[in-house]
Design a protein that fits this description.
The complex is a heterodimer of chains A (529) and B (158). Chain A has 22 helices and 18 strands. By secondary structure, chain A is of the alpha/beta class. Chain A folds into three domains: 215 residues, Rossmann fold; 96 residues, Rossmann fold; 188 residues, Rossmann fold (3-Layer(aba) Sandwich), CATH 3.40.50. Chain A has a seven-stranded mixed sheet, sandwiched between helices. A five-stranded parallel sheet of chain A has the order 14-15-16-18-17, with helices on both faces. In chain A, helix 2 links the parallel strand 2 and strand 3. The mean pLDDT of chain A is 96. By secondary structure, chain B is an alpha/beta fold. Chain B has one domain: Pyruvate-ferredoxin oxidoreductase, PFOR, domain III (Pyruvate-ferredoxin Oxidoreductase, domain 3, 3-Layer(aba) Sandwich), CATH 3.40.920.10. Helices cover 30% and strands 25% of the residues of chain B. Chain B has a five-stranded mixed sheet with strand order 2-3-1-4-5, covered by helices on one side. The longest helix of chain B is centred in the N-terminal third of the chain and has 14 residues. Chain B is globular. The model of chain B has no long low-confidence stretch (mean pLDDT 92). Classes of the chains: A alpha/beta (529), B alpha/beta (158). Chains A and B meet through strand 8 and helix 11 of A and helix 1 and strand 2 of B.
Chain lengths: 529, 158
């Protein structure tokens, strides 16, 4: 046993290594990013995939072949990966498949605060929720074991305060090796045509019934006896807030929160005078518990917004629905001084463009002094939302529509938008700006297929955006440094907006935070040649 | 339970070393054999905006976040960040700002976070060597000397 101080993300990575995970795949996204980076740094095999759907499918393939696979993503990433998620629940796996869903209640760095516990129920995938770094370590190992035992994928659902909080972890004495993989043909189990999928759905529900039985008995759903006046049912980070807020109460800490141990919950609720369910985010637990006819209290609707903390749990327990004190107003984030995107937004602002924006550092172009962004919905939406605007707005407005997307986001889900642009071509054409700073900057400078380096910064094939766009049928493709070639950039943008053609301008210059590191990787690469 | 826990909040702006400072405090507490938790937020909030990080150590730390009005120490690396964070302090809590250190005495202004750790370290009965060893372990060798000087300055004025 080794005593370590680890963030939840590091703890998951350490557990993956100690449990012999064969392969980790994911797409960077706060608060999940450091899991695969740390796994790679300590010796695990990890890769960035172009997006979460690809990552999950890679994980499914690995787990079909008998591997222990780990797939990581932020909450909204699971929307992208939802298609394979719902069907891998039917197929199951031979090895192990654990999906990390890193939710961001309070939206520290996200566009929404969806509660992905709903996915576990919707897809029929068992879910574990750790409350601290130690449990992040323990439950990743347990999830791998349960996934193999029940031949089913497992979601390990964490939140920002689990991922990015550090705590003490005592690691396991026994270290497992990666699995020996061997393909076993199982056509009815793995090929989801309707004739095979119908029985597969029944098999899934049978498995879930058995897992629910197991969950009634397991010690991970822990009862902490206290006073009989107040009993609290909770999970995840809310558990530690609630223990601190109400040290005198009895607790039922739920660790596997799908399928729920409803008998255990009923017995606990019956054992106390007042039973309150503390849910961060959606009323996930309380709705399920009430639907089972168990009498419990939930929280007032105002506590659905934002993350919980000790004070908010105290207010929930006191049924206090008065206005909460305003959170401290800090200095908002901004595009770095010297950021290559700044000039682009100055020009878009001056030209009064209608800017369909996207997800990344450059979303900060929405803030003063630029205020040069009009929409931001999800990864890749800049291009397709821009097309929708182009198709339907009156011509004078349509001609001002520009889609702005970063390099990593473009690879993630912008390419299909380009296909739509050349296929369902707007009458006024369209203009797409790829702000290529040669890194995934917002999440902390991760590599992607366009950088030509792997997760561990070793060289890889570099996706050639310009050649790809030309081959796809875009009329005009320009590559330039918008800052250094300022006049040229403005002229090309003006001309492109005026004509009826499709244009992609790749504004390329490394992120100032990444430039030094990129030079180091390149030098290392050249020296190796 | 909270009586047995020391609560520290470090505040500043992105790029000032707030997270490095809070990492060091947490590692010192860890090395001293205490229970410890540390919370911070990454991502968009770091692009030059306000950054805070919470460290709690003692016996049996539960929530990783310091509740409002519960901080024993608020360490602020930028004067503009005092107002928006001071509500986190206990009535008897202590505010430590860079006014403690005369920044012109620092060879390298970027060592202000380590200088503030020097001042903070005087508040605890924890071996000074644990602090200096932890600081060194968190920084490249070439920065050791200048940071040790900053730490010593903080100890002196703190």
């Amino acid at each position: 046993m080794t005593r370590m101080l680890l963030s939840g993300n590091e703890a998951v990575a350490q557990a993956a290594l100690d449990s012999g995970v064969n392969l980790g795949a994911g797409y960077p996204g706060t608060p999940s990013t450091e899991i695969l980076e740390h796994f790679s740094a300590i010796g695990g095999a990890a890769q960035w995939s172009p997006n979460e759907k690809v990552a999950l499918e890679v994980g499914i393939g690995a787990a079909f072949g008998g591997a222990k696979a780990l797939v990581t993503m932020k909450h909204v990433g699971l929307n992208v990966a939802a298609d394979p998620l719902f069907t891998v629940a039917y197929t199951g796996v031979s090895g192990s498949l654990v999906i990390i869903s890193a939710d961001d209640p309070g939206m520290a760095s996200s566009q929404n605060e969806q509660d992905n516990r709903n996915y576990a129920k919707a897809a029929g995938v068992p879910m574990l929720e750790p409350s601290d770094s130690q449990q992040a370590y323990d439950y990743l190992a347990l999830a791998l074991q349960l996934s193999h035992q029940w031949q089913i994928p497992i979601i390990l659902r964490v939140t920002t305060r689990i991922c990015h909080s550090k705590g003490i972890v005592n690691t396991a004495d026994t270290k497992l090796s990666p699995s020996e993989c061997n393909f076993q043909r199982d056509i009815p189990g793995r090929v989801m045509v309707p004739a095979y999928a119908r029985p597969a759905h029944r098999r899934l529900r049978e498995k879930l019934n058995k897992i629910a039985q197991w969950n009634e008995e397991t010690e991970i759903n822990e009862i902490i006896p206290g006073g009989k006046e107040l009993g609290i049912i909770t999970s995840g980070i809310s558990y530690v807030h609630a223990r601190e807020a109400a040290p005198e109460a009895s607790f039922l800490k739920l660790s596997m929160t799908y399928p729920l141990p409803l008998n255990k919950i009923r017995q606990f609720a019956d054992s106390v005078q007042r039973c309150v369910v503390i849910d961060e985010g959606d009323p996930y637990l309380v709705d399920a518990i009430r639907a089972a006819g168990i009498c419990v209290e939930g929280k007032a609707d105002l506590y659905r917004f934002g993350e919980l903390n000790v004070e908010r749990v105290k207010r929930i327990l006191a049924n206090d629905t008065t206005a909460e004190p305003a959170p401290p107003k800090g200095k908002p984030p901004q595009l770095c001084q010297g950021c290559p995107h700044r000039h682009v937004f100055e020009v878009l602002s001056a030209k009064k463009c209608i800017v369909a924006g996207d997800i990344g550092c450059y979303t900060l172009g929405v803030l003063p002094p630029f205020e040069a962004m009009d929409t931001c919905v999800c990864m890749g939406a800049s291009i397709s939302v821009g097309l929708g605007l182009r198709h339907t707005l009156p011509e004078d407005q349509a001609r001002r529509v520009v889609s702005v997307i970063g390099d990593s986001t473009f690879v993630h889900s912008g390419i299909t938008g380009i296909v739509d642009m050349v296929y369902n071509r707007p009458k006024t054409g369209h203009v797409v700006l790829i702000l290529d700073n040669s890194t995934t900057a917002m999440t902390g400078l991760q590599e992607h297929p366009g950088t030509g380096r792997l997760l561990n910064h070793e060289p890889a094939y570099q996706l050639d955006f310009a050649a790809m766009l030309t081959a796809m049928g875009v009329d005009n493709v320009h590559v330039l440094d918008a800052g250094k070639e300022s006049d040229n950039f403005e002229q090309i943008l003006t001309d492109s907006l005026a004509c009826d053609q499709t244009t992609v301008i790749i504004a390329r210059r490394p992120c100032i935070l990444a430039a030094k590191k990129i030079r180091e990787y390149q030098t290392k690469q050249e020296n190796a040649c | 339970m909270s009586d047995q826990v020391t609560n520290i909040v470090v505040a500043g702006l992105g790029g000032q070393g707030v997270l490095k400072a809070s990492d060091i405090i947490a590692e010192v507490a860890f090395a001293a054999g205490l229970d410890v938790k540390k919370a911070e937020v990454h991502g968009m909030s770091q692009r030059g905006g306000s950054v805070t990080s919470d460290v709690r150590f003692g016996q049996g730390v539960l929530s990783p976040m310091v509740p409002a009005g519960q901080a024993d120490y608020l360490v602020v690396l930028d004067e503009t960040q005092v107002e928006n964070n001071k509500a986190v302090l206990k009535p008897e809590g202590e505010l430590l700002t860079i006014a403690l250190i005369n920044p012109s005495n620092l060879k390298n202004k970027r060592t202000i976070n380590v200088a503030m750790l020097g001042a903070l370290s005087k508040r605890f009965d924890i071996d000074e060597k644990l602090w200096t060893d932890t600081i060194k372990a968190n920084l490249p060798q070439r920065l050791h000397e200048v940071n040790m000087e900053a730490f010593a300055l903080g100890r002196q004025v703190g």
